[in-house]
Amino acid sequence: MCDYSLHAVAFRPAEASEVLVSSKFPGTHTRGFASPAEPTVAVCLRPGTELAFEKNAVMQGALFRWKIGATLARFRQMDLDKPAQHHDALEFSNGKIVKLTDLVPGQLVRVVQLPADRVVRRTTVARRVPRDMPLT
């Protein structure tokens, strides 16, 4: 998903194994991911998407930048009950949760794995046809 604040930006879904870069999008106050080849197009992640940062991930604090201490993360959403806040976040392998808007722009990540699609299976009721009934 893309956060509500990116709906004014062109966007597309993420693809498995592609390389993305953390980005700040023109005309918004938020950050997300984009393809290095299309820096103005936001790449939307679904909850459960797994990412591998090229280097130790870094977040922007109020005054300083902080190393997160991990390179592997899973995309998730948080604070969904608060409609006017950013929801997109990463949960890192060390347990830290960082909102995408706090990531330092310019970090390269690879989409390691997309979440499995939930398949809704419908069961059909087979009607038994008598053997002597003509099929027309």
Index terms:
136 residues, globular, mainly beta, two-stranded antiparallel sheet, single chain, nine-stranded mixed beta sheet
Question: Could you write a compact summary of the structure shown?
Answer:
The chain has strands at residues 11-13, 19-24, 31-35, 38-44, 50-53, 58-60, 65-67, 72-77, 88-92, 97-99, 108-113. With 136 residues, the protein is mostly beta strands.
Describe this structure as you would to a colleague.
- The protein is built from no helices and eleven strands.
- The chain is mainly β and 136 residues long.
- It has one domain (4-113).
- Strand 3 and strand 4 (38-44) form a beta hairpin.
- Mean pLDDT is 86; it is low at 122-126.
